[in-house]
Design goal:
The protein is of the alpha/beta class. The chain is built from nine helices and 15 strands. The strands form four sheets. Strands 5-4-1-13-14-15 form a six-stranded parallel sheet, with helices on both faces. A five-stranded parallel sheet has the order 7-6-8-9-12, sandwiched between helices. The protein has a two-stranded antiparallel sheet with strand order 2-3.
């Protein structure tokens, strides 16, 4: 697997909250030292690339650069910009990572008459914020969901995930969202463009069968399930989602 381009998940694969997962740094150091290309592929739309890099550097990872991160917010913005080049007005729910991804594609933030409403997680969004974008959705703006995550695990327990917020909007405006993040095909297609790599050359590494591994399987891309996060080997049978390889620890990938 040395000649592969690695697309690596973050939460549950590199770290849990603010703690590095055993073997993760050794694995990244190995990739860097052997000039093996990789990017991090994350459904988290909150952090900018710089914030994502700093988050890992603070945990002790080394050699991590902002351009190594590709988020569901970036995929959403890139996909809509490419697919609807004449529609430039948007509004959004989201944090700095969502905002920056939209600005990167020169979208115009317009709360009066947007063509699209992007929904990424905003942990400070209010009833008024939601109602404001709902009015645009009811009047014809298209709903974009950066990711489907129902629940966001935290040290305090389960939190509402972005997918649950997107569902709320779907219910309120009776419109199905354009879905972007893992396991959806848009995410991997945009990531391949971003990394400028052919899917035959890629291997996806992640801890989640329903997002990381399912996306790889759907796209015919090789996958590695690492059982340091959400799913283990028994879950492969229970969910009937089979990765190409399973390792208990990313050190298992170093040959
Ligand atoms: Mg994960």
């Amino acid at each position: 697997m040395k000649n592969k381009f690695y697309m690596i998940d973050l939460d549950g694969t590199m770290y849990l909250g603010t703690k590095r997962i055993k073997g993760a740094k050794t694995f990244i150091d190995y990739l860097l030292n052997n000039n093996i290309d990789f990017i991090f592929l994350t459904n988290n739309s909150c952090r900018t690339q710089i914030q994502a890099a700093n988050h890992m550097l603070k945990m002790g990872f080394e050699g991590i650069r902002p351009e190594m991160f590709y988020t569901s917010a970036m995929a959403a913005s890139d996909y809509i910009a490419r697919t609807y080049p004449t529609k430039r007005k948007v509004n959004f729910i989201g944090e700095k990572g969502m905002y920056e991804a939209l600005i990167e594609n020169n979208f115009i933030i317009d709360s009066n008459n947007p063509d699209f409403i992007f929904v990424g997680l905003d942990r400070n969004a209010s009833y008024q914020d939601y109602s404001l974008v709902l009015r645009s959705l009811v009047h014809g703006a298209r709903l974009i969901g950066t990711n489907d995550d129902r629940i966001l695990p935290s040290e305090q327990g389960e939190n509402i995930g972005n997918g649950s917020v997107v569902k709320m909007f779907e219910y309120a405006c009776q419109q199905e969202a354009i879905k972007i993040g893992k396991p959806h095909n848009v995410m991997i297609e945009q990531a391949l463009r971003y990394a400028n790599v052919a899917k035959e050359d890629v291997i996806i590494v992640g801890d989640n069968l329903e997002t990381d591994i399912k996306m790889g399987n759907n796209a015919n891309i090789e996958t590695v399930l690492v059982t340091t996060g959400i799913h283990n080997m028994e879950d492969c049978y229970r969910l009937n989602i089979k990765p190409t390889y399973i390792v208990a620890n990313l050190i298992g990938l170093i040959k």
